[in-house]
Amino acid sequence: MTKLKGNLIFGQSGGPTSVINSSAAGVFLEALEHPDIIPRVFGMHHGIEGVLNDDLFDISQEDRQELEYLCGTPSSILGTCRYKLADPDVDDSDYQKILAILRKYDIRYFFYNGGNDSMDTCSKVSRYLRKNDYDCRVIGIPKTIDNDLFGTDHCPGFGSAARYIATSIAEVWHDTHSYNTPMVVIFECMGRHAGWLAGASALAGVIGHGPDLVYLPEVPFDQNKMLEDARRVLKEKNVVLISVSEGIMNRDGQLVAEQLSTLATDAFGHKQLGGTAALLADLVAEELDVKVRGIEFSLLQRAAAHCASGVDIEEAVLAGRTGVRAAIDGASGVMMGYARPDQGPYRCDIIHIPLEEVANREKRVPLDWINAEGNGVTADFIDYALPLIEGEPHQIHENGLPRFAHLKKIAVR
Amino acid sequence: MTKLKGNLIFGQSGGPTSVINSSAAGVFLEALEHPDIIPRVFGMHHGIEGVLNDDLFDISQEDRQELEYLCGTPSSILGTCRYKLADPDVDDSDYQKILAILRKYDIRYFFYNGGNDSMDTCSKVSRYLRKNDYDCRVIGIPKTIDNDLFGTDHCPGFGSAARYIATSIAEVWHDTHSYNTPMVVIFECMGRHAGWLAGASALAGVIGHGPDLVYLPEVPFDQNKMLEDARRVLKEKNVVLISVSEGIMNRDGQLVAEQLSTLATDAFGHKQLGGTAALLADLVAEELDVKVRGIEFSLLQRAAAHCASGVDIEEAVLAGRTGVRAAIDGASGVMMGYARPDQGPYRCDIIHIPLEEVANREKRVPLDWINAEGNGVTADFIDYALPLIEGEPHQIHENGLPRFAHLKKIAVR
User: Fold this and answer.
1) Does residue A252 have an active-site annotation?
2) Of A128, A240, A296, B99, which residue is 20 to 30 A from B278 by alpha carbon distance?
3) B2: distance to nearest CA of chain A, Å?
4) Measured between alpha carbons, how far is A413 from A216 in angstroms, rounded to an integer?
5) Is residue B78 part of a domain?
6) Which residues have CB under 8 Å from A92's CB, separation 6+?
7) What ipTM does the predicted assembly reach?
8) Distance between A221 CA and the closest CA of chain B, angstroms
C-alpha cells in the first residue's frame, strides 16, 4: 500500500487538562519523524476556529526541546475553543471553508484532541470529507478530566486531575485533623454528569486520609440524607471531609448549584456550574452548627501540571504518537482509545473506536461502583483508578517554578 | 560550663503550614542525638493544651525513619491549638499547672513552634519559669505562612505557600489564556494584615505567567480603582488575573469580606476571613459584564506539601536543630530567626531574637515594596521572595500518593 502523502494538522478543543499538551507533543514529535510522508506539521489556533479563520501555526519550525517541554505544560498551548459545527445537512458553509483550507495547505492528516463535543466535530468533518471524496485521515485524540468518553477505559487528563485532588484532600486531611475542634470541609470537584473526579477523591483513603463521604451525580442527592451522614461522622470522628461533584442533582433533577444566581449556559447548552461547595457549606453550618469550609478545586484541578500523573502523561503522549502511526497506516474516522487487561497487572493498550460511537455520548460511573448508601465508592472504583495516578510529573524547574514550553507560534504562510 | 541535663518538650501551635513538621523533625532528631544531656523527648498533644492536660507523647519511642518523613508531611502532626494563656499577673493558674508538669517530667527544654500568638505564649512561660526559679531553656521556633513575624527575615512556611500559590497561578494562567474569550480570575490568598502571600503570587510573573493586578492589605483597597484597573487590563489583554489578600480593607478600615455574613471571631479576637474572591468576582461580573471566576486557595495553600519549597523545608529543619544546640549551649527566652546577607548570593543564617520582641507584633510588607498604583509589588519584593521558593519537596510516593509520616504517638507515662 502506498502511504498517503500530505501535511498534518492538529487542534485542541474544549476544556484544557494538565496533559492535553502531552498528546500534542506525541502527535508533533511522531509526525516530525516522518518527513517523507508528512512534509509539514501545522497547529490550529483555537481549534477548529483556527481552520475556519486560516489561522494556523507552523509546528515544523518549533524547537524540538520546547515540544518536549509540552509534557510539563498544562492547558491548550495552541489555544482552545468551544465552537460547535452545524449539522452539515442543514448548513455546510463551515465545512466548505474547512475543506478549502485543507486543500490550500495539502492537509491529509486531520487530528483533533478533545472530549465528547470535539469528537462530534471530528466525526462530522470526517464524514463530510469522505462524502466529498477528499482523501484525508481523520483521527480523534481523547482528552477530558471528566473521564466520561465512551468506548475508552479512561481518558487522558483524568489521572492527573485525580492525583491532584486525592493529594490535596490527603493534605487538607492533615490540616483539619490537627485541631481538636469539630469541623466539616466540603470539596467540590468538576464533573457535570459523571462523578469520576469526586469518586477519585476517595483515592486519598488508600493512605488513610480520604473523604468520609462522597456524592456523585449518578445517584440522586438528598440533602437531608447528607446532613444525617455528616452528623453521624461528626459524632464519631469530630472532623468530616465531604467530596461532591459540581453536578450533583436532587431527586427531581434539579442541580444543587441551581440555587445560585450565577448560572449561565455555554455554546453547547451546558450549564456553567460552580458554587456547590459554598452552598452546601452554608447549609451544613446552619443545620449542624459547626465550623465549615467549602473548597472548590475550580480551574486548579485541570491545570495542576506540577502534580500530574506520570502514567497519564505517558499515555497522553502514546495516544498522540500511536494516532499518527495508525493514520499513516490507513486508519481514519476513529478515536485512539485505551484498553486494559481484565486481569493481572495494569497495562494500557491503544484501541481504535469509531468517532460516531464516541460523539455526544457519556460514560458515567457504573452504579455498582457506588456504595449502597450512595455516599462513597467501592473497592472496584479504587482498583480501577489507582493505577492511573502513578508516576511523577515530567517537569523541570527554574527558580523554583516550572519550566513551561515556549512555542514560537509562527503563522503558516 | 556544665550542660543543663533534663528532658525536652516540643509543641506546635496556631495555623498549620506545609513545613511545621520539618521543624519538629529538626528538634526531635537533634535532641535524640544528645541522650546524655536530653534523656527523653516529649511532644505536646495540641500544643500548650497538651501540657495543661498532662497529655504528652513519648517521641523517644518513635521510629527515626518516620521522623524523617515529617519533612514531607504537612500540618501539625502533634495537633495544634489556639489556646491563649492569661496574663500571669492576673491569673497564674495555667502557669502553675505548666510548672507542675515540667517538674513532674523533669523537663528542662521547652520548645514552642508557632506565630505571633505562640511566641506570646512562649514568652509568658519563659518569664514565669524565670520568676519561679525553675531552670528551663525556653525556645521559640517560628512558623507562619503569613510571614509576618517580627525580627526575622522570613518565616518557615512562607516559602512553601508562596511556591504553591505562584505555581498554581502560573498554571491557571495557561488555562485562561487558552480561550479567546474575555475573562477575569480573582485569586484569594491568606493574610489578615500582611500581604506577603498575595505579593508572592507575583513570583509567577518571573516566568511571564503572573497576575496582572495584586492588592495587599498594606494599602487601602478602593473597589472603583480596582474596577478601573481591571477594565484597562481587560481591554489590553482580554484576560485579567487578580490576586488579593483575604484581609484587604477599604479606606475606612472595613474589610472587603465583611459584607459576607459568615464572619465569626476566633479565640484571639481575630476575624475569620474568607470569601473575598467570591465577593469581588460578583462585583466584577456585574460591573464589567465579563466571565469571572473567584478562586480561594483556602486550606490548600498551607497544606500543599507536594509543592513545598526545598529551601523552606531545609531552613525549617535548621531552625529546629539549631534551636536545640543553642538551648544546650545556654540560650533561652529567644526565638530562632533567619537573617540573610545584605548583598551577594542568598544564604540563611540563624539569629536569636528575644521572645518579647516577637510576641504580638506584626511585620507587614514595606510600603516601598508596593508599586505607586497600589496594584502590584516591586522588583525588591521579587528579589526578596524568589530565593525562598527554590528547591524540590522532600517526598517519596507510594501508589502515586505521598508517603506521610506515621507516628505511634505513645502516651508518656
Assistant:
1) no
2) A240
3) 38
4) 49
5) yes
6) A86, A128
7) 0.96
8) 25
